[in-house]
Specification:
This protein has 268 residues and is mainly beta. It has a domain of 182 residues: Hexapeptide repeat proteins (UDP N-Acetylglucosamine Acyltransferase, domain 1, 3 Solenoid). Helix content is 8%, strand content 32%. It has 3 helices and 32 strands. The strands form 5 sheets. The protein has an 11-stranded mixed sheet, with no helix packed on it. It is elongated and about 65 Å long.
């Protein structure tokens, strides 16, 4: 089992914050079995007290190492910042500052954000959720409960993620759905990529192998496991139970059948 579907086959580096989640010796999808408990045991919620659950944030809020600021800073987004929202204090850029823009919505307080995080207007987050340093949560993103997001990630416009893990640098920038899935380091989802997580028929999701056999995940819901540096083209669809090896590429408009795919596979 370890040679075929252990997490170490798909991911070269595990962020330290996630090490306890990726410590087992079983198949990679068991990470998702343990995700709910891991989040509740390790999360350190740090939202400011003046946020009301379910109510849009009224004015921008910035988090610095010394705590939250409601004023005394400005947010800048222009050609000089290449379209990125930045926090400035007394004429100096503060790259480690996290900013929650007016219009963002938090359903509860079980949210932990790192340094340099940007949460744009219209994003909606349900806890428990952990967001790593320098991650962008863009306008209209929908982050549902039980998500673990690493550093340098992007959850983009009208992208929905649920019960999923993003390792460092994973990006779902535009119109994506990611359910019960794991995205490896530097994975990039093309616009409109869907990682479907619920099979039509009864029973659990099974992973098809080249020898005609299959592995029973014992999970009713399982999206995709995308190894490090996987790239998907626009409007591609992963059926429940897709495991893509490192460096694989899915061309635009491709529907991928359930199965275990070797590294550097190209699917058209």
């Amino acid at each position: 089992m370890k040679d075929m579907a252990h997490w170490s086959v798909f991911f070269n580096d595990i962020p330290q914050r996630m090490a306890g989640l990726f410590s087992g010796d079983e198949a990679v999808w068991t990470v998702l079995d343990n995700l709910k408990t891991f989040l509740r045991d390790t999360i350190k919620p740090n939202l400011p007290d003046n946020i009301s659950p379910g109510v849009p944030v009224e004015t921008p809020i910035a988090l610095l190492p010394g705590g939250w600021l409601n004023d005394g800073f400005e947010t800048v987004c222009n050609d000089d910042t290449k379209g990125k929202i930045q926090v400035w204090i007394e004429g100096e850029k503060v790259p480690e500052a996290t900013v929650i823009c007016a219009g963002a919505v938090f359903v509860d307080f079980r949210v932990e954000v790192g340094q340099g995080v940007i949460i744009e207007p219209g994003a909606l987050l349900k806890g428990p959720v952990i967001i790593g340093d320098n991650t962008e949560i863009r306008q209209g993103a929908y982050i549902r409960e039980d998500c673990l997001v690493g550093s340098g990630c992007v959850i983009g416009h009208t992208t929905e993620i649920k019960h999923s893990v993003f390792l460092n640098g994973a990006k779902a920038g535009h119109f994506a759905y990611v359910g019960d899935s794991i995205l490896g380091n530097q994975v990039n989802l093309g616009a409109g990529t869907k990682l479907a997580n619920l099979r039509f028929g009864p029973g659990s999701v099974r992973i098809k192998l080249d020898n005609g056999q299959s592995l029973d995940t014992k999970r009713r819901k399982l999206g995709a496991i995308l190894g490090d540096n996987v790239q998907t083209g626009c409007n591609s669809v992963m059926n429940p139970g897709v495991l893509l090896g490192q460096g694989s590429m899915i061309c635009p408009n491709t529907t991928v059948s359930p199965g275990l795919y070797k590294p550097r596979t190209i699917l058209r």
